[in-house]
Amino acid sequence: MASVNLELRQQVIAIYKQLLYLGRDYPQGYNYFRPRLHRAFMANANLTDEAEIRQAIARAQFVQKEIEALYYLKRYRTLRKRYDGA
User: Fold this and answer.
1) Any coiled-coil ranges, and where (predicted)?
2) Which pLDDT tens digit goes with each residue over 11-29?
3) pTM recorded for the entire structure
4) Distances from the Cα of 15 to the Cαs of 50, 55, 65, in angstroms?
5) How many CA atoms does the CB half-sphere of 80 hold within 13 Å?
6) Which residues contact 4 (CB under 8 A, 6 or more apart)?
């Protein structure tokens, strides 16, 4: 049981760090992104049920994929504007 909790804790910390890293390039800025990310994680800090924690991790991974998609779209639009206008 303790090893499962330790594993989940490590997963939560890892996804938090990954989201913080992604937040550096957030369109509204890191100072906008970080407090909201912190609040979102603190809202789920009291979860104790393993299934609920896994659902929260899955939701965080979904958010991570959405942010990455936002960055790829921004990059694509920038490149397209740069080369279509030439």
Assistant:
1) none
2) 999 999 999 999 998 889 9
3) 0.84
4) 16, 13, 11
5) 6
6) 50
